[in-house]
Specification:
The complex is a heterodimer. In chain A, 34% of the residues lie in helices and 18% in strands. Chain A is an alpha/beta fold. Chain A folds into two domains: 135 residues, Thiolase/Chalcone synthase (Peroxisomal Thiolase, Chain A, domain 1), CATH 3.40.47.10; 217 residues, Peroxisomal Thiolase, Chain A, domain 1, CATH 3.40.47. In chain A, the strands form two sheets. A nine-stranded mixed sheet of chain A has the order 3-2-4-7-1-8-11-10-9. In chain A, strand 5 and strand 6 form a beta hairpin. Chain A is globular, with a radius of gyration of 19 Å. The relative contact order of chain A is 0.20. Chain B is α/β, with parallel strands linked by helices. Chain B has a ten-stranded mixed sheet with strand order 3-2-4-7-1-8-12-11-9-10, with helices on both faces. In chain B, strands 5-6 form a two-stranded antiparallel ribbon. Chain B folds into two domains: 132 residues, Peroxisomal Thiolase, Chain A, domain 1 (3-Layer(aba) Sandwich), CATH 3.40.47.10; 198 residues, Peroxisomal Thiolase, Chain A, domain 1, CATH 3.40.47. The chains are: A alpha/beta, B alpha/beta. Chains A and B meet through strand 3, helix 2, strand 8 and helix 8 of A and helix 3, strand 3, helix 4, strand 8 and helix 10 of B.
């Protein structure tokens, strides 16, 4: 019970709007073999595979992992499919961690993926169901009113979102896997981009991407072995997921209770009492720019109503004292079913010292965060350079 | 490993079409029922996990609405699998093994009635080579049945006997079943083929329904339940997907899972098998190494009620119910996913002692 879990391999595809150069199995294998190479393993070393992705309608394949079994070397192995809305591949990484923690398996491959070019995801999220509230305008249309409410409550300056988008897209230039590499982006270009769902502009919203991320998780023996060979593992210090209903009396959609509870739970496990001081770098799920200040408050990095100040003061920039989304984040890359695990994986890369140009020097404690549904599903983990 | 048991179960009356109910309305009374039976406070579960299918619901993220059927306010630790509820139970079992939970609520459900189920299930096939053929689940089943007959491992007469036995048993033993009677095998064999060599009686019905269970660990289970159904072993394995690469007359993944779950460690009294076609029962009997003395599907099995995404978890429930009553002390439950028994889970349940 409660085996220590180490991340010893991480592999990502190049993300882009259309990965027409690979088949679906090819896309997953690109990420998988990079993760295995990183872990110095082969498919034969893997005990079990845990896969997450967003709705099957996005590709038009029902439980697609079944037709991927041969391509992933999974014949005769446990194959597991998680599906928990936008937080899905964060949840997937947590389910995979559970297989190690519990002692059920020793080496687990976990994959998050999406091939959004197969369909129009925004409208796939907005189908009309009998007797149900209609979403009409995709995720941006759903979240815009809560962002406006956040601005009204906090008095945040109206260019806060512009600053977040500019930072994340500039960070993405340091990440070779990122979907968007906008070399000419500027404060003005973001501010002048088309208003889609007031106050969310075109340049403040996530792209639609194809891509996959894979991670190899091992128990303490595997983590120690990697470390002994000079391949730094990331140690899992805590995992948590929380869910709340889409509609409940008293529910606050600006700073949902489930998000607060999830953060409190994962920080308690990791022994973190002051996240702002004790966390070195954060990968947060920010699909619309304004969610950076909103989540900074929700997760306990800032007092209520003050998250925007961290953005304006440059605290969340790469040279700030709490860098957020050094990878470019969801604003630069969004294969929905992979986006959560990309946050988790990028956090792990930081504490392994393997984030390349977007590495934060000396990062020892990092947070990965994902959310989904009507801001009602949360998945988080804390990873560290040292053992828990 | 920690001792974990099924301590309470509940299920719907399974029907051809629960037309007047949506998924939330269908599963909510079952969840209410299992919570009351368990004796756990509705806000006292350490973990909740469910299984369902967007393709059946015709809606992306369909499980989000179903969260309204559980008391998720204040927020709960919760997860969902796009697989049969047997795998939701597996995830909950793993969660309890990590020490992060001592109790778990597990549920799953499916309404197959709104669509053409065999055609919907054709979308599970490989998208490049097989899905464009629109092979239905019954077409794939027929290929497997033909392979079984050609190999001399079953016959149309033996298959009719299995259908007759299952539905007759449901009539005697299972108040929740959808089909509870059968014509005599000779009459069944006079019917036309649905997909040669399968006739209608060889196929599980199209069913709407759901199921819920409560898991608890160790002393908590003993405190909540007089005779917990202990999960002594549980494992799941996948076979390949592409039909041309598989020997459809065998189920190697079931054999592997059974070995890891310890099926052969002690004698088995009953087995509840997720066989959606008559010809799959002998495949699974062989794969699990069950002797002729093992009673298979006393509930009638999927041939008597086949709520998609719940029919696998129902197999565990049917064994657990018989352990709770003391009728049985050791049984095997099997759940499957994919076409032609591609993905298989095997659990061994035992009473105390």
């Amino acid at each position: 019970m409660a085996e220590r879990t180490a991340v010893v391999g991480i592999g990502q595809t190049k993300y882009s709007a259309v990965r027409g150069d690979v088949s679906l199995p090819g896309l997953l294998r690109e990420a998988t073999f990079r993760a295995l190479d990183d872990a110095q393993m082969t498919l034969a070393d893997i005990d079990a595979i845990v896969i997450g992705k967003a709705p099957d309608f996005f590709e038009g394949i029902m439980v697609p992992e079944y037709s991927l079994v041969e391509a992933l070397g999974a014949v005769g192995k446990p194959v597991f499919r998680v599906h928990t809305a936008g937080s899905v591949s964060g949840s997937t990484a947590i389910v995979a961690t559970g297989l190690i923690e519990s002692g059920v398996h020793e080496r687990v491959l976990t994959i998050g993926w999406e091939m959004q070019s197969c369909s129009e995801a925004m409208w796939a999220l907005s189908v009309t169901m009998p007797f149900q509230q209609q979403l009409v305008a995709g995720a941006g249309g759903y979240f815009a009113p809560y962002i406006r409410q956040y601005i009204a409550r906090s008095g945040a300056p109206d260019d806060t979102g512009v600053l977040v988008a500019l930072k994340d897209r500039q960070n993405a230039l340091k990440n070779p896997y990122a979907h968007l590499h906008e070399h000419d982006i500027s404060y003005e270009s973001v501010k002048e981009s088309l208003m889609l769902w007031d106050p969310i502009r075109y340049s403040e919203t996530c792209p639609s991407s194809d891509g996959a991320i894979a991670m190899v998780l091992t128990n303490e023996v595997g983590g120690d072995a990697a470390a002994a060979e000079g391949r730094a593992p990331a140690w899992v210090h805590g995992t948590s997921f929380r869910s709340e209903p889409a509609m409940a009396a008293g529910r606050d959609q600006v700073s949902p209770q489930a998000g607060r509870d999830c953060a409190a739970d994962v920080f308690r496990q990791a022994g973190i009492t002051n996240p702002r001081e004790q966390v070195d770098v954060v990968e947060m799920y920010v699909p619309f720019s304004w969610y950076e200040p909103m989540w900074l408050e929700n997760l306990g990095f800032a007092e209520e109503g003050t998250g925007w100040q961290l953005t304006h003061d440059g605290v969340t920039a790469m040279d700030g004292d709490l860098p957020v989304n050094c990878s470019g984040g969801v604003l630069s890359t969004n294969p929905i079913g992979a986006s959560g695990m990309i946050r988790f994986g990028e956090a792990a890369l930081q504490v392994r010292g393997m984030a390349g140009e977007h590495q934060i020097d000396g990062a020892r404690t990092a947070v990965g965060h994902a959310y989904g549904g009507a801001a009602q599903f949360y998945a988080m983990w804390v990873v560290g350079a040292g053992k828990p | 490993m920690r001792d974990v048991a099924i301590i309470a179960t509940a299920q719907t009356k399974h029907v051809r079409a629960a037309t007047a109910l949506n998924e939330v309305e269908m599963i909510q009374p079952v969840i209410q029922d299992v919570i009351e039976r368990s004796g756990v406070d509705r806000h006292g579960f350490d973990f909740t996990c469910s299984g369902s299918s967007d393709y059946l619901a015709g809606q992306p993220f369909s499980f989000v609405m179903t969260l309204d059927a559980v008391a998720a306010w204040p927020p709960i630790s919760e997860s969902h699998v796009e697989m049969d509820g047997a795998w939701a139970l597996y995830e909950a079992w793993v969660k309890i093994q990590t020490g992060h939970a001592d109790t778990a609520l597990v549920y799953s459900y499916g309404k197959s009635s709104p669509g053409d189920l065999p055609r919907v299930l054709s979308r599970m096939l490989d998208p490049y080579y097989e899905a464009p053929l629109w092979l239905t689940s019954i077409d794939v089943g027929a290929l497997q049945a033909r392979a079984m007959i050609d190999a001399g491992l079953t016959s149309e007469a033996a298959m009719a006997d299995i259908a007759h036995r299952s539905r007759t048993a449901a009539g005697v033993n299972n108040p929740h079943a959808q089909l509870t009677s059968s014509a005599e095998p000779s009459a069944l064999l006079a019917e036309e083929y649905l997909a040669d060599p399968l006739r209608r009686h060889d196929c599980a019905p199209v069913t709407d329904g759901g199921v819920a269970v409560v898991l608890a660990a160790g002393d908590r289970a003993r405190e909540l339940c007089d005779r917990p159904a202990w999960i002594r072993g549980i494992d799941h394995r996948a076979d390949g997907h592409h039909l041309n690469f598989r020997d459809l007359t065998t189920s190697p993944s079931t054999t592997l899972a059974a070995s890891r779950a310890g099926v052969a460690d002690r004698p088995v009294e009953i087995a509840e098998l997720h066989a959606c076609f008559t010809h799959q029962e002998p495949i699974l009997r062989t794969a699990l190494g069950l002797g002729d003395d093992v009673e298979v599907n006393p509930s009638g099995g999927p041939l008597a009620a086949n709520p998609m995404m719940a029919a696998g978890l129902l197999r565990l429930v049917e064994v657990a119910d018989r352990i709770h009553t003391g009728e049985v002390s050791r049984g095997v439950a099997h759940a499957t996913g994919g076409h032609a028994l591609q993905h298989n889970l095997v659990a061994v349940l035992e009473g105390e002692g």
